[in-house]
Structure formats: C-alpha cells, structure tokens
Amino acid sequence: MTFHPHLSKLQPYPFEKLKRLFAGVQPNPAYSPISLGIGEPKHPTPEFIRDALIRNMDGLASYPATAGSEALHNAIANWLARRYNIQALNPATQILPVNGSREALFALAQTIINPSVCQDGPPLVLCPNPFYQIYEGAAYLSGAEPYFANADPQRNFAPDYQRIPEAVWQRVQLLYICSPGNPTGAVLTLNDWKELFDLSDRYGFVIAADECYSEIYFKREAPLGSLQAAHLLGRDYRRLITLSSLSKRSNVPGLRSGFVAGDAEIMQKFLLYRTYHGSAMSPMIQAASVDAWNDETHVEENRTKYIRKFEQITPLLAEVLDVQLPDAAFYLWARVNDLNGISDTEFARQLYEQYNVTVLPGSYLAREAHGINPGENRIRMALVAEVEECLEAAQRIVAFCKTLNDR
C-alpha cells in the first residue's frame, strides 16, 4: 500500500508530544487538574449565538453553497471596514467564509503552491519560528518545504527577514505570518508590514496573515491588521490574504467559522479549489456567524475579562519567571531556564507531577533552525479559563518555581 510521500515528514502535534512527556507520570492527587496547555477559549459562548443556531436549524435540510450567503459576506465586509477603518472590501469577490481559519490556512497552500516553477529545488513556504503547526503541514503536503525564520526576542519576537539569503527568497511562494502571534503575543508594526509588502513585491510571494487573535488585546489601541497596514501604506491587497475566525473573538471554537479576505484573483482560485474540497459552511452556522460578526458588545466584554485576568496574573508570575504582558492574544510566553537551568520539557513534566498544572513546552512549538530552537527553555501558558482557575494555576506555578530556586 502506498501513501502520500510527504506524510512521513509530519511531526506529532505538540499535544501528542506532551502526552508522551507525561506518560507514566502520576500527578499529585492533592491538587485538582488545571490545564494551561491548549489555547481553547473557556469563557461562555454568548447566548445570542446559541439562540441563532437554534432559530436556523431548518438550514440543515439544505446543501450550502461553497461561496456562502450574501448576508455573511456583507457582515464580514462591514466588520472589516469598522474594525480596521478601511473602505469596505467587495463582499462578492474579496471575501470567502471558511470553516475556521485552521482549515483555510492549510487549504490555501494547496491553492498557491506551484512546484513546477522552481528551478533550484522545491518551492518554500516561509514560516515564523515558533509557529502554528498547521503552517508546516500545509507546506509539506502542497509539495513545498517550510523555511523557518526564527523569532528574535530583541525585536519583540519578530524575525529578522534581512538575514534571509537572496536564494531563499527566490524560492518562497507563500509566507505565513501570525499577528498577534502564537505563542508570543507580539503584534507587527506598520514598518514590519512595509518590509513584508516590499519583499512580496520584489519576489512575488503571497502573504497569508493569520489574525485569529486580533480581538484580544491589552492596550487602548487595537492591533494593526494586514489589510489596515496595506491601506495606510497606500497599496491594494495584491498577493495578500487575511484569515480570521470567531473562535477566540466570540468564544465559539466549536462553531468552526471564519473567513479569508484580500486579493480577488487569489480568492477566485481559492473558491474553485474549495468547491471540489467540500468545504461549504452549514447554513445554520452561517446565520449564527452573521449575528456574531454584527455584534461588538460581547467582544468588548470578553476582552475586558482577559484584561483583568492578565493584570492579576502577569505580575504574580513575573515574580518568579522571566515573563511580561504580551501585546495581545491569550498566552504568556515565559523563559524558565533561569531556574537552575531547568529545560522547558522538564519544567512542564515536574510541574504536572508536583502541582497538576499543564503548560506547553516552547520547544514543541518550534523547530531547530539556523542552529537553535527558539522555543527552547520557554513555556506557553494559555490563560483561557475563568480568572479564579487561572489564578490558582499561577499560585501553584509560583510555589513550584520557588522550590526550584531553593535547590
């Protein structure tokens, strides 16, 4: 029996690695389990979204169109115009609903990558490092290879694109970028976007801007988006695709509702691909999504919860860890090797064993590239639960770190 030749290049997902790390470990029964490992929103789903699903259950009797409803296109276009203070995109040609940004991030590479045009090796998909693991899988299974640009803590975790060789840029066909970033929470500046747009103009690659954390932020000014940056720089959306989702914004990860928007020519080809891929969104989910994109009150309430949570927990953890409030998103990205040189994996394993708290080793979210693994000796903590549970976890982590310092 034969299989896709690149499937063997896929690594186990971080949570599978975590399961192996914890194999045979018995957590301290004196503590109830608390997981800060998975970035799955735990705040309640707004009632009006639940109600919209129930009201529109008749939609289950119809095959949905892959392109999605006009109402959903309009709701997304209006949200983008309000959120980023830009002229509304053409709802018919520049917007496409998708079943969550994850599946679209993967499928986009299948549409963009053309292995036949590279003379000096397979095409490249440029990814930040650490990164959302879908980028790597999308690269391999589209016939390309990932090229990792390491996050630089001295640059607010932005990669130094100037260090990437010319020969690499000439093979790049797709660049993934996540802003606000997972796991660092860093937000790209207008200068960062100008650099990426200039590189895209020079080498002709497509930019896929993963912006699923855009509505969780801690400063007065909302994070800059890619479409907004293009608008401010006086350019159109050529070779630019923005991807977003309701999962974090509206606490509906199970709804699997998001969108892609941007370059009309790419959107046309992506719609063609999706027509065959079978990615149409259920009519009842489309209807609920319209209500979600049209409402900002629940988003502001959700953001306020995160702000209060991070204001309490970040200073507490900063007493024992090298960690600071991120620009946005719901992760803390902490360095741990200052604690008697403990590794990120050993920190996670011992914390789980002694205090029944799960965190994700940073090395699981990155790859060794250019001589280092930029996630090594860091941990990612997802503060997604209600504040009381997150505070309890933070207090246990503080106690654990103090035992490490006492050794």
Overview of this protein structure:
It is built from 14 helices and 13 strands. A hairpin with a 5-residue loop joins strand 4 and strand 5. Helices cover 40% and strands 14% of the residues. Helix 2 packs antiparallel against helix 11, helix 4 (101-112) runs parallel beside helix 5 (134-141) and helix 7 (190-203) packs across helix 8. It folds into two domains: 10-44 and 298-405, Aspartate Aminotransferase, domain 1 (Alpha-Beta Complex); 62-294, Type I PLP-dependent aspartate aminotransferase-like (Major domain) (Aspartate Aminotransferase, domain 2), CATH 3.40.640.10. The protein is globular. The chain is an alpha/beta fold and 407 residues long. The termini are far apart. Its cofactor is pyridoxal 5'-phosphate. It holds the Pfam family Aminotran_1_2. GO terms for molecular function: pyridoxal phosphate binding; succinyldiaminopimelate transaminase activity. It is an enzyme of class 2 (transferase). InterPro entries: Aminotransferase_I/II_large, DapC_beta/gammaproteobac, LL-DAP_aminotransferase, PyrdxlP-dep_Trfase, PyrdxlP-dep_Trfase_major, PyrdxlP-dep_Trfase_small.
